[in-house]
Design goal:
CATH class of the domain at 284-411: Mainly Beta
Oligomer: single chain
Strand content: 25-35%
Distance between the termini: 156 Å
Largest sheet: 9 strands, antiparallel
Shape: elongated
Helix content: 10-25%
CATH topology of the domain at 284-411: Virus Head Decoration Protein, Chain: A
Length: about 425
Amino acid sequence: MDKNAIRNILTIMIVVFLGLPVSAEVLGTYTTNEYFYLPAYGEFGEEAFDEYNLYMQKADTQIQANKEAIVDWTVDQDPLKIHANNYVDNDTTYTAGTGMQLDGNTFKCTVTDTNTTYSAGTGLSLTGTTFSSTITQYTDNLAISAIKNDNAWNASNWDTAYGWGDHSTKGYLTGITNENIENLKNVSISSATSGQVLKYNGTNWINSTDKDTTYSAGTGMSLSGTTFDCNVVDTNTTYSAGTGMQLDGTTFNCTVVDTNTTYTAGDGLKLTGTQFSLDFKYDPSIASGEYSGIPDTGIVGETVIFGDLLYFKWSDKKYYKAKADDSTTAEVVAMAVEAKSANNSCVIIRQGYVRNDSWSAFTDSIVYLSTATAGKMQSSVPDSSGDQIKRVGQAVDSKIIFFNPSQDIGEVK
């Protein structure tokens, strides 16, 4: 649709809206901004025609004004350089924080003036709402004048002090001729006597007697005035190196030398590196007249031979041959493993393997103390009334016994 057709349609719509009759004659002029077409005078009359033209001109003017007010935000608007593409509504939600209030899409400040009252402190003055410093910047002359006019600064003595002269060379205090020491703040003098001195008691200096403690030099010390010295004198004592030692100048050294002596482990011992340990174990592979056990010694009260069974008599602390026909001689505790006469020390064992081919052959594994011959053994169990039943070991062969006397003993009734 072209521009003229659009204008004609808008013109007809406005005429209809105003209730004006539409004339067939549409020849005329355009409005100022050419938004509407104004037909020539028609059949609807001059008054209506003038009113129509007035409304068209108003509509034309308004449209132009609206058009001029519209900004094309799709291009940069100089000088602000605002561009519509830079402003996207992303539905961000905002809330009012402390001291703020949100009404619709308008934020307002809610901070209230509480009418707090302020006042000026030392060195300040308050004028309206402005604080200022009241400290005076003193020059030398102002300082001198202020001091002389201020009684708190003892201004009455200013001229006298000034008259002493140059304080930098004489000092502020020119003498204490008329002052006593007790006038000092931390000095407390009470009934002072001749020879006393000042001593500090933790709070004040007080007068006290000088104890005048006397010191003397002890052994090896000397006192000269207030200085002690050590008087120990080197007497040049001569030392010599003893066995296994050597003296080099004033230094002693050990001269013991490792001669690499070689040691070996004997029976019942084991040598591991440089450490010996017990390595005894019972060995039944022995010859007649030999034993495998831990040897001990004891004094025998009568003559004994290899393989005799012994009991210990408490009264004389000696060993005697045991026999199972009486309870006092049946308590076997040891076996002689060498021949010894009475009252001599004899090698004995209390447990171990013993072989003696001169023995009667064992006929059973359990061996008992003999009831017939002192010091001997038998394979049969004693069975006569009054006989003592004492197990003395286990036969491992016809001539070899593992001697291990039982702690128990029985009696045949």
